[in-house]
TrEMBL record:
Domain of life of the organism encoding this protein: Eukaryota
Protein name from the UniProt record: Uncharacterized protein
PANTHER family the record matches: RETINOL DEHYDROGENASE, RETINOL DEHYDROGENASE 11
Annotated GO MF terms: oxidoreductase activity
Keywords from the named record: Oxidoreductase, Signal
Upper lineage: Eukaryota, Viridiplantae, Streptophyta, Embryophyta, Tracheophyta
Segment forming the signal sequence: 1-27
Source species of the chain: Pisum sativum
Family: Belongs to the short-chain dehydrogenases/reductases (SDR) family.
Amino acid sequence: MIGTNYVGAFVLTKLLLPLLENSSVSSKIVNVTSFTHRAVTNLQVDEGIVSGKKFLSSKHYPYAQVYEYSKLCVLLFSFELHRQLTQMGKSHQIFVNVADPGIVRTNIMREVPACLSWFAYFVLKRLRLLQSPDRGKDSIIDAAFAPPGTSGAYFFGGKGRTINPSALSRNAKLAHELWETTCNMLSATPFGNE
């Protein structure tokens, strides 16, 4: 799950970044995250986290915990990319934002017993927290069509609304450690230094 949610976004961005840098028009990178990243209160960055191997030692694979970590990693990566582009003087050309679609009715709970997923969806719907995929896309569209110059923002809830993510996700030292660890794990060099 970390490979799909975080490492995949990292690699795809790395591959596309030279094209974005050489583009004659400004570009936007939008990564999708989740409010569940707030459940992670401490993160020790190492290759075990980035590769996902840390979670394989459990008797039962901790789906929720891995999802939370993966979405925190997406945020840390996005904010670090924004910082690096700013330092390289390219933040006027490439904008990086994150979008949180909220709780959307999808098949994400397909591995959970049917009675539990039904109950969870029932409760979330009663609390008016569950939304359709059509509504869930709003924050992603907001991030993609944000006004020029908007970068490093966390979009949530539609209508162009931005909110503050967790303090941990804004930890620049942690974000840089994650960046370096991911580059080392992938035998890559940091963006822009190739």
